[in-house]
Amino acid sequence: MRNLLKIAFGIIIIIILGYLTYIQLYSHSKPLSPEESNSLIQVYYPKSNDTVSSPFVITGKAKGNWFFEATAPVVLVDWDGLIIAEGYIQAKGDWMTENFVEFEGTLEFKKPEMAEKTDFGKNGALILKKDNPSGLPENDDSLEIPVRFE
Asked: Which of 35, 64, 85, 113 could form a Cys-Cys staple with 97, CB 3.0–4.6 A?
C-alpha cells in the first residue's frame, strides 16, 4: 500500500513539474506583426508619409486594452530617431472594453533643423505606443507611422 502511495505521489509531482515547465516555455507572447497591430489600432491621421506641421492632431481608433486610464503615449522622432515631441492620445469613450475606442491627441514640435537643409531631413516617424503599466515586455506594442515635416 505504501509503495502504491509513493508511486501515485511521484506521478502527481511529475505532472505538476511538467505543467510548470510548459507554462514557463510557452506562455510568453511573441511580438505582434504589423497586421496584428492594425487589428489593435488604426490611425486616421496622419497616414503613412503625410506631411505634418506643428501643432497637429492625431486621430484614430484603438482597442480598449491599448490604453491605461484612457491614455496611451505617442512620440515624434526626426530622421535620426531623436525625439522631438512626446505626448498622449486620449480615448474619447469608455476605454475599459475590448472594442475599438476613438482617440485624439495633439502634438506640438519644433521643426528639425535638417528639414530646412536636406530632403532626408524632412523624414520622421510618429510612434504610438500601447500603454503598458505592468512594464512586462510581452505586453509592449507600438505602431510606427512614417511622416514628413512641412
From this structure: 64
Look over the chain and give the mean of its residue pLDDT values, rounded to a whole number: 85
What is the share, in percent, of the chain residues with pLDDT greater than 70?
85
Residue 29 pLDDT: 42
Cell 482597442 belongs to residue: 63
Q: Which three cell numbers stand for residue 121?
A: 531631413
Same domain, 39 and 24: no
**Total number of domains constituting the chain:** 2
The predicted-structure confidence for 104-113, as pLDDT tens digits, reads as follows 999 999 988 8
Buried b (16+ CB within 10 A) or exposed e, 85-100: bebbbbbeeebeeeeb
